[in-house]
Amino acid sequence: MKASDYIAKVLYDNGIDTVFGHLGGFNADIVDSIYGLGKIAYVMNYHEQASSFAANAYALIQGGTAVAMSSGAPSSCNLIAGIANAYFDSIPCVFIVGSVHSKAVRTSKNIRQNAFEEIDMVRLTSDITKLGMRVTNPQDIRYYLEKAFHTAAQGRPGPVLIDIPYDIARADIDPETLKAHNTPQDERYDEINTEKIMHMLKAAHKPLILLGGGAKSKKCRREITALLNKVEIPVVASLLGLDVLSHNHKCFAGFIGHYGNRYANFAVANCDLLIVIGSRLDERQLAGLKDGFAPDAKIIRVDIDGNELGNKNWNTPDISMSIRASAEKFLTELLMQNFSGLDYSRWLSLISAWQKSYPSLNSNPAEVNANDFLRTISDYISDDAIVCADVGQNQMCTAQSMRLDNNRRLLNTGGYGSMGFSLPAAIGAAYAFKDTEILSISGDGGIQMNIQELQTIVRDNLPVNIILLNNNCLGMIRRLQEKMFNNRTFASVQGYSIPDFSKIATAYGIEYLKIDCPEKYALARNFISSTSPRFVELVLPREIQNIPEPGASISTQIPLLSDEEFERIKKEAAL
Question: In CATH, what number does 3-177 get?
């Protein structure tokens, strides 16, 4: 049996029905075998970065491991953004890179390159993969493939890279004689002291749950809802945890952090017990000041990665209880407890009042505003729509204002934060979940980084609605330059330009709608499609701001509140 045929079969046996990638001489045998198998869709992107981001999104929506593929050095290097994104955001992906003949690989680092398009991808990506392996003997192909799929999914998920030289892919093998990978025993995690947790809950008057990316699984979504049916505790979310709990649930209390909803940050600042599930508490959440993060609260942290627990650096807040366990296991054991007699209704009502008083909306509804527009179209999209945000002001507007009600999903690039993510992520989402509305929300800068993927969308007639928030600049950097560099907006405004996006849409054959005033927001209702591509351009003024924007700390978000207002909020929170 040809090794590449065996590789295709193993992919299918591991539940892989879609592979994203580009075609080159070094992976042509594997791609041909995938085609010959007839059971796996091979999605040919027009840039490998798009393939890697599409695989990230596919894994997130499917809830399993995804595969992306490349050829020689330039092709494989183009995957790196998606490999890094999978690593930082804990996404299980297997990246298969075709490479030079195994006998041509350089044997010394003193030699820069021995073969055409040669590069050591295992070494190059060692800091952003859970595991990297090069196959040097065709008899090891089963072992490496099985190890790759096990490693990508076990424990804290992440990317695995397999380098397969083209002569290995072409070799003849006997599947019956191949060495298997012996799956190691599952890692041991902490025993969960539910008695102590319940004691802390009973002593609390203002508990709060913070959901992060580690709580995104389908089981977690079900179990957090089941928990809140037993005891109503307010829930806030990090950027990666924003779609875990439906936003129309009475306990949902918003998005936290630098750009977070003001009312959500008030909830964190005034809670007396904070249960953090699957969030790494990075500096964007803490806003640089650990003493201002839940200053009067006991904090329980739950994370599957023991390295995330404890004091990682100077900025980590003091933790009362650290639990190394999966979010699923923690919630399952917590659900078995008796919550009768626990009543946090006054605390919930207070947060609800803050939500009404401090919305992330424009104070002048007559102006075109991204937050207002995204809140408006939240009323139109389907209950299972998938929203893919890019990076920049558009991403924060989406996080602040898009209502992720019912079964809607939001895909972000969180820890890596790469512009150009949204469009290929929408492609991956469309392949993972057919027959629903996919929204790709981008700024005018980010969309141009993978704009070639409009052809993938058109070619495959994917139901991707491109929502372009166009303020004709790199808005988030422009705001930074205005604040820190005396309005010197070089390269974000001066020296920056954009094309006519109506002509771009027409060139790709995508139906186009321009919205340039609030009265036209409603036109999106019947334009957004679940069957074919659409392009909506929201024309914004250049000097837009997020609502709110970061200040020096969480308490100094812009627009600033008076000391008297903060004092009033503190008194309200003294339940």
Answer: 3.40.50.970
